[in-house]
Amino acid sequence: MEPDMACCIIQKMEDKGHEIGTLHADNDTTTQSRLPSTIIKKNDKSHVKKNLASSLYSLSKKHKQLKSTGVIPYIVRCFMYTISKHQGFKETLGAELATVVPHIFGDHNQCSSSWCTYNKDPTKFRYKHLPDGKALSGDHLKEDLEKLAKSYIDRADRLMNLGSTQANESFNNSVASFAPKNRFYGGTKSLKARISSAVMLKNEGSGWLSKVNENILLSPGQMTKLHGLRRDKIRKRVRDMKRTVAFKRKRISLKNKNVRCDRREAVKEGDTYGNEIELQEDADIETILSKIKLSGEETVVVFDLETTGLPRRSDITQLAAFDGEELFNSYIIPSHNISPTVSSLTGLSFDFHTNQMYHHGTPVKSEDLYTAMRDFIDYINKKQKPILFGHNIAAYMMFLFC
Fold first, then answer.
1. The whole model's pTM is what?
2. Taking the CB of the first residue and of the last residue of the chain, which one, N or C, has fewer CB atoms within 10 A?
3. Using an 8 Å Cβ cutoff, are 55 and 61 in contact?
């Protein structure tokens, strides 16, 4: 249906004297093969990114390295940065795309200094978003990624001057608000009016109804006009806010937080949902399964926190850990007073006048949170395959890792 609709629209536009030279669209239909060869096909940037990520997630079923947190988003960023940087230059775009996979696997001979910092100081270079800061490995994985990269290199001409179909998606949402897909309006006379309303909203803004009333010699409606102006101001404010770097960073932060929460719940509850999981005869419905399989080589590190109070915004005042042999203990300077109830339980108190912490009245050495966390990380890094255990610690994990 979509290819036929696109061909029909293009034909009607040409009949009205509009010449179409370039078409920006995704690769989900056979539209291009049905159009005249004179029309140049260009890919959509958002769909290129989504399709690339989908291909990588499909490969992750074969290669476990791609399942690590942040690996696939990092590979997508490498590809998309290269594509965005070389818009309009087909030869350089293909050459740069060919260096992405070697870069990920530790070969930096052809990397450009504009996006790879390896050549500046090879001894200190490490990957920020790959496991343990090290390059990926494995001949089969490298071969599959090279095949994926080649598919993009072969169509480098379509990746130049990428367009965007977000305006179309926005209009589709507007149409869906007037003519929802879960209701049938195709057989009613109101469909044309509903589509026209969506077009007016797109072209004229939220005050379109007042303009229609004026055009047919009716009162524009004072409240209707004020409502339209108010809605336009809100839309503009929201649109400007979404363009800011702070909003985009917050959106990414919230997305990562939701991913962590989902994984934590999956560990707590095990596999409770899946394709035909009800038909599996060996499904364990009583034991909460763990995602982690221990080999016996791990070092168990038990740790505990003391805080200034029970609320989630409380400060950490003490971090202690023990692995059966080595003890770690650090007192941490809080930013506000320790509640009397907590102080009576932990024996910790802090004098902000002298910047001194006391444990049951005895002065103890304390340090800032950043230093304490760095020392704790160094303590953990000394262990072989460390696994952290904490009693009633779920509510306080964000203090350590956020």
1. 0.56
2. N
3. no
